[in-house]
Specification:
seven-stranded mixed beta sheet; about 325 residues; 7 strands
């Protein structure tokens, strides 16, 4: 019997998919078992903490003798296990914390003090599949503060269906941090735009999950006239186009009117029936919150207004851990 090439390729892809699923499932199972093991070891250490630091030193040596090929049982890691067990209860570890790698758990314990924030970063790591380095970046850039407790200004709740509105609000940050591009005092909108496009991977990370970049200075023709959108994206989670306009100075009410027009144009020229309404994001160097709120009050299109910063918004002790502008410039060269 002759084998049809297309059918064979389909079978191969099906088998590869099953293998990938099994490997992922096995990896999750191993990670969960390892995390629970570390939790139980930490609990035992805490039960005997009155024995002093020498207990952990001796424990590390004896484990090394018993299991010479095993790693992960250094004095430092044993202390992390003890702290991990002291900070979380077993049910939380089994249902939440064990879903991310041990190195991620250690980072969250070390860098995040609030239990509410810890749970948020764990769930975001699971949701977005953040690597260890990305997780560190998100914590050090104050993502929780910028995305969860920021004073977000938008009219999404009034103009979007509930499900899309909630997701759009969750997507917003204030401020956005563009610490990956070199800052110059005389930068204009086009300079910032070019720098963001040059570092598009970092920009997409800052914007969040689901964003697909469609172009900068995106050309639209409306009634024979030419218009150019600073940055155009499509968000796969929101199922809509996202227009981003950049302004180098303070927010002005007329900026919202301009963005409102661009959203109407995209809805008229690009949006398909299956797409949700296009949303806009106006990024300014600074804004008066009350003026921004009034400006959006009677707008017909869904949009949000946020600030952006080139440098870190972190406390000084954390800011020192991030690369300087000079370091970034060297890396670009």
């Amino acid at each position: 019997m002759l084998i049809n090439d297309n059918q064979y390729l389909g079978v191969i892809e099906s088998i590869k998919t099953e293998i990938s699923k099994a490997q992922y499932s096995a990896a999750l199972h191993i990670n969960k078992e390892l995390t629970l093991l570390y939790y139980h070891i930490g609990s035992i250490i805490n039960e005997h903490k009155t024995w002093g630091n020498k207990f952990i030193d001796n424990l590390a040596k004896d484990i090394k003798i018993a299991y010479p090929s095993s790693t992960g049982y250094s004095v430092r890691n044993l202390k992390y296990m003890a702290k991990f067990a002291a900070e979380y209860d077993e049910q939380f570890v089994q249902t939440v914390s064990a879903q991310i790698p041990w190195s991620h758990n250690v980072t969250i314990i070390e860098k995040v003090k609030s239990s509410e924030k810890r749970e948020w970063y764990i769930k975001k790591t699971i949701e977005n599949g953040w690597s260890h380095n990305v997780l560190v970046h998100q914590i050090e850039s104050g993502l929780y503060e910028r995305q969860v407790i920021a004073n977000k200004i938008s009219n999404f709740e009034n103009l979007l269906p509930a499900a899309q509105s909630e997701l759009a609000v969750q997507t917003m940050k204030d401020p956005y941090v563009f610490d990956f591009i070199p800052f110059k005092e005389d930068m204009v909108e086009r300079d910032i735009e070019k720098a963001l496009v040059k570092e598009i991977t970092s920009l997409l990370l800052e914007l969040g999950t689901g964003f697909a970049f469609l172009g900068n200075q995106y050309h639209l023709t409306v009634g024979g006239d030419d218009f150019y959108i600073d940055l155009l994206f499509y968000n796969l989670n929101l199922r809509c186009y996202v227009v981003i306009e950049l302004k180098t100075g303070d927010f002005k009410p007329e900026y919202a009117g301009q963005l409102n027009f661009y959203l109407s144009a995209v809805d008229g020229e690009l949006k398909k029936e299956t797409d949700n309404p296009t949303i806009g994001l106006l990024l300014c160097k600074s804004k008066n919150n009350l003026v921004a709120e009034y400006s959006l009050k009677d707008m017909s299109k869904p949009m949000g207004i946020s600030e952006y910063k080139f440098g870190s918004v972190l406390p000084e002790e954390l800011s020192k851990q991030l690369p300087s502008v000079e370091d970034i410039q060297k890396r670009i060269k």
